[in-house]
Amino acid sequence: MISSYLGLMRESPVHLTYILETKEPVELGDFVAQFVAIGNEFERFVKEQHKDLAGDASFFVKEVRKGSTIVDMIPAMAVVAPFIANADQVMIVEDFVRRWGRRLSALINDQIKDAPTTPQEFKDFSKAVTAIARDPKATSRLEAAVFEDGKRKVRYSFEFTTSEARAAEKVIEHRQHELEKPAQDLHERVLMVFTRSDVHSASLGKPSGEKVMIEEISDKSISLTYGSDLAERKLKHEIREADENVYKKGFIVDVHTKVVRGKPVAYAVTHVHDVIDIEEN
Predict the structure, then answer these.
(1) What is the CATH number of the domain that holds 196?
(2) Domain match, 62 and 171 both
(3) Which domain holds residue 155?
(4) What mean pLDDT value characterizes the chain?
(5) Count: domains in the chain
(6) Residue 16 burial by CB count (10 A; 0-12/13-18/19+): exposed, middle or buried?
(7) Mind listing the pLDDT tens digit for each residue in 211-239?
């Protein structure tokens, strides 16, 4: 089996070549991470554009050459699915390198179109640029190459430098931070009831130590924060000084709901419209 693989690799018409030139030695983890990133992105590309080949969306390393760090890789489809026409194999790998270039360029230039959007994509592209960004003068180049009449021909390549890698890192870091920030949804005139109260004051936007339930939004008790001084004064008055137990009251409020991964994690009350008595069952 191994010998047949090697034979097919030698005969493969298309190679994906990665060329890394650095001024200083590259940390091993950063070096390997680049190939993980390329492999993951190729897998995404194949699943999106060539679903019938999704099971073969990986690479074999054919050769690591001397001089600059030069790694020749063979797409698995060329080894385990040699029935795919050579022209199609070349087109797939060339399209992938073009996509790789577009996505990295979008990060380098802080553009939205063609840029990664998911946490895993940002993680992979961060791996792809780290080794270059850490070197004072490095370049990275990915090539789609073919062998025709015994000669190697580059069909398409994309290269980026240390300064471009550092620009991409900043954009990736910023967009990862934006993804991690809780989203906020505004809900107006919803019924809120306390499930845990605290007589002490809290700074605006900070957890109050109280928990409330708003059934229109979630069936769970969630932490309460105050989005305005007036809202805090009204609610604290009911907690500290009202004659009735605060747990027997309902509050008609406007709240911003902080959402993480689609789930409410905190309410920020901005306005209290009314206080009503809740009948006991």
Answers:
(1) 2.40.50
(2) yes
(3) 2-180
(4) 81
(5) 2
(6) buried
(7) 899 999 988 899 988 888 888 888 888 87
